[in-house]
């Protein structure tokens, strides 16, 4: 989906259309940009940027708090469109998924035509646009989906793959973040063509197990199948605080709200967890975690809060000011598929 959260806001509020919209936290505090409209991106704003910096880049931007219920509802609509076309649908997030249409419910032999039909139906039913990438593996399809945004479709055939990858800047490679990009640049790797020159041994030496992945994708090799029911490993919620906090009682209030949100998600999946992890980030950005694992599974907010209080006592929170708090549960008593968008982690609890 194109600028998903911002696009939903512009759809639902005509006054926002054509204007720079930033969905996220308070620019007067420590809020973070979840996403922004294409009008805002022209000013250099992007997701994960601090809302304060986004405001400095574009003071006329309109800042909107996220409405996750609205986004989840649209996500369900889009997911159903996917499932009407293909059995093999692997969700990546609320607004993105892989589809294997080798065998499809439309009986259409053209993956490109199926992508066109899906995009048309999404627009017809939701009023929103989506971009698609079509190719013979996940890596190429993912990268291709970002080439002609917004509202675009890009096809990369097996014959085109080598030239497409060779010209691709490494920052556009799915799986290469900013830190890895800088490490590659220090090695003189700026494009896919540069990456192709390095042996498997050298890439593994510099990037560990990821080196094998980079070696293969530089050659257009990605054997990963589309897996419709990936298993969720954890459910977590965290809050970056508007101001540094040193009051433990207030910290426990925040953790209590997080425990309630996690409990709802566990109940929706009829599941329980064995492990609870507390995340604390101090005002100086030092971050630590504390965990507790129980033999008996738990799913109630009161249980989680009691455990969180014990774990918080094992930190310096209170003696030191805190800027972020988070809770995560894991080691479930039964598998939780990622397919349900309500169970996907959201960047703003």
Structure report:
- The structure is a single chain.
- The chain has 349 residues and is α+β, with helices and mostly antiparallel strands.
- The chain folds into three domains: 4-66, MutS, DNA mismatch repair protein, domain I (3-Layer(aba) Sandwich); 131-228, 5' to 3' exonuclease, C-terminal subdomain (DNA polymerase, domain 1, Orthogonal Bundle), CATH 1.10.150.20; 231-343, DNA polymerase, Y-family, little finger domain (Dna Ligase, domain 1), CATH 3.30.1490.100.
- Helices cover 38% and strands 22% of the residues.
- The chain has 13 helices and 13 strands.
- The protein has helices at residues 4-12, 38-41, 51-57, 68-85, 111-126, 138-145, 161-166, 178-186, 192-196, 200-207, 210-217, 248-268, 301-312, and strands at residues 21-24, 33-36, 62-64, 88-93, 96-100, 132-134, 153-155, 231-232, 234-245, 273-282, 287-298, 322-332, 336-337.
- The strands form five sheets. Strands 9-12-10-11 form a four-stranded antiparallel β-sheet, with helices on one face. A three-stranded mixed β-sheet has the order 2-1-3.
- Helix 4 (68-85) packs antiparallel against helix 5, helix 10 (200-207) crosses helix 11 and helix 12 runs antiparallel to helix 13.
- The longest helix is centred in the C-terminal third of the chain and has 21 residues, at 248-268.
- Residues 339-349 have low confidence and may be disordered.
